[in-house]
Design a protein that fits this description.
This protein is mainly beta. The protein contains 3 helices and 9 strands. The two termini are about 40 Å apart.
């Protein structure tokens, strides 16, 4: 599985979003490769910001289908109902999400689509080790984007790291 990456350049800073957060890289080889990809995108001395879902923030498994959304799509003359369930492995650190989308239209058979993905939650030390291995330096971690001090404990961890400047 290859995660979609969005890399934005802004005044020497690269903000890397891996399908909204790094945890979508559930496989260890993907997790090791992603920081190296970000490093290559940076100019010397540039900085990367990576949000990471913390291991202690894992939610409860939902083994049975549960309605998550039910919305009317007037332009399509349809009703969209989304159901979801999750399974956990590795003490909840690896979450496998399954979604079922049902599209209801009057006079037509319902269309049903399935989507699956996995999310891995990382410990601070575990993720911190991936960054120097990729070649980063000046590694810092904070909770959320709002400041260097911890804020809301529910916020994702945000790692910042720099590519070595040219010497």
């Amino acid at each position: 599985m290859t995660a979609r990456r969005t890399i934005r350049h802004c005044s020497g800073i690269v903000a890397a979003a891996y399908d909204r957060f790094f945890g979508i890289l559930a496989e260890p080889d993907e997790a090791r490769a992603a920081p190296a990809c970000s490093l290559r995108a940076l100019e010397p001395g540039g900085e990367v910001l990576i949000p990471v879902s913390e291991a202690s923030a894992a939610s409860e498994a939902v083994p049975d289908w549960r309605e998550r959304r039910n919305v009317r799509l007037p332009d399509e003359d349809a009703q969209l109902v989304v159901f979801g369930r999750t399974a956990h492995q590795d003490d909840g650190r690896l979450q496998r999400w399954r979604r079922r989308h049902e599209v209801e239209r009057a006079g037509r058979q319902n269309a049903v689509f399935f989507r699956e993905h996995a999310v891995r939650r990382y410990g601070t030390g575990e993720f911190s080790g991936l960054l120097p291995a990729a070649g980063f330096e000046s590694i810092e971690v904070r909770r959320g984007y709002t400041g260097p001090q911890p804020s809301d404990p529910a916020d994702d961890l945000v790692f910042s790291a720099r590519r070595r400047p040219r010497r």
